[in-house]
């Protein structure tokens, strides 16, 4: 299988993200070891949460806006198998990757809608309620992409 790494993400010649997910899970699981060690030292939940967010979560969500919308459910489950043990180690509920993905997409859309010089500014038109953006009607694979 031909693959290449660009900007820290691995993609195959068939535009699959499987190898990227495998690499991310490996890196994140390595950091879970250190999270367990922090717990064994008796550190507070807040310190462990800060460590998780700074190290493990940053590995998991690196370029998440690019690849999470196009991976299969099996790969999503594989990624969430890192979040669940971290949640148990810390002793607090942690947001799933889907929630983090939605938050980052909404943040990006908000920034684009506020920047009138952005090329995609016209694509993000808020509804009259200003709570949501007007959705672009699609009938193809673009229905799950960030922007057409």
Automatic annotation (TrEMBL):
Residues 17-58 form the Alkylated DNA repair protein AlkB homologue 8 N-terminal domain. Pfam families: ALKBH8_N. GO terms for molecular function: 2-oxoglutarate-dependent dioxygenase activity; methyltransferase activity. It comes from the Eukaryota. InterPro entries: AlkB_hom8_N. This is Alkylated DNA repair protein AlkB homologue 8 N-terminal domain-containing protein. It comes from Ridgeia piscesae.
